[in-house]
Structure formats: structure tokens, C-alpha cells
Specification:
Layout (H helix, E strand, L loop, with lengths): L2 H17 L1 H7 L4 H8 L19 H14 L1 H12 L2 H5 L2 H7 L9
Length: about 110
């Protein structure tokens, strides 16, 4: 995934998060549509090792992605940062363990 595509996905999630901000706040968790948008996006493969089907994205793009999502809704940005950032664990595990732990590589850490 390139920089421009990552930002485009982040902007789409931010717009949806903004639309559902009241629902997220009232429910004290991400609105289901927002959570589905995050888990359904290719952003969840950011920093997942390429051997597991991930993207070796640049850290500055990750920061910009989370910043843009957070501009739509801070809670959504926080959750996206944890969901996407959790993929870094796969890079430090032995490959067999990473493949076992990161079973759902289409959704990253899940």
C-alpha cells in the first residue's frame, strides 16, 4: 500500500467516524459501522510482515494515518492506532508463532 492510498483510506474512516461520533460516545465503544470500516480496510495490514501478507509501510505514514483518523474522532484514532500498531508484534515473533497468532491476516491482529 502506498502513502496516497493509506491516506485515502484514513480519510474515509475519519469521515465515517465523524458521522458516528455521537453513537460511539453514547455506546462507550466504536460504533459498529466504524469498527467494521477499520477492520475491513487494508490499513489493518500496515506493519504486518510481508511474509504474512502485510505492508512494510513507513512509520511517518502510520503517524499521518492515525492523525487523520483522529481528526474525525479521537476515540477512533486511538483504537485504529492500537489495532494497526499491534502488527509490529508479528515482526519480533518467530515466523511460526507469528503465523499462528496472526491467523486473520486480512484483519491484522485479531
Amino acid at each position: 500500500m502506498d502513502h496516497a492510498t493509506a491516506l485515502k483510506e484514513a480519510d474515509a474512516i475519519a469521515a465515517l467516524a465523524r458521522e458516528h461520533a455521537d453513537e460511539t460516545e453514547a455506546g462507550t465503544r466504536l460504533a459498529p459501522a466504524v469498527a467494521a470500516a477499520i477492520t475491513g480496510s487494508d490499513l489493518t495490514r500496515w506493519w504486518l510482515p510481508t511474509a504474512l501478507g502485510g505492508y512494510a509501510g513507513h512509520p511517518s505514514t502510520f503517524v499521518e494515518v492515525i492523525e487523520r483518523i483522529s481528526a474525525g474522532d479521537a476515540s477512533t484514532g486511538w483504537c485504529a492506532g492500537i489495532a494497526i500498531g499491534g502488527n509490529t508484534v508479528a515482526a519480533v515473533l518467530p515466523e511460526h508463532a507469528a503465523k499462528e497468532f496472526f491467523v486473520n491476516v486480512s484483519g491484522g491482529c485479531g
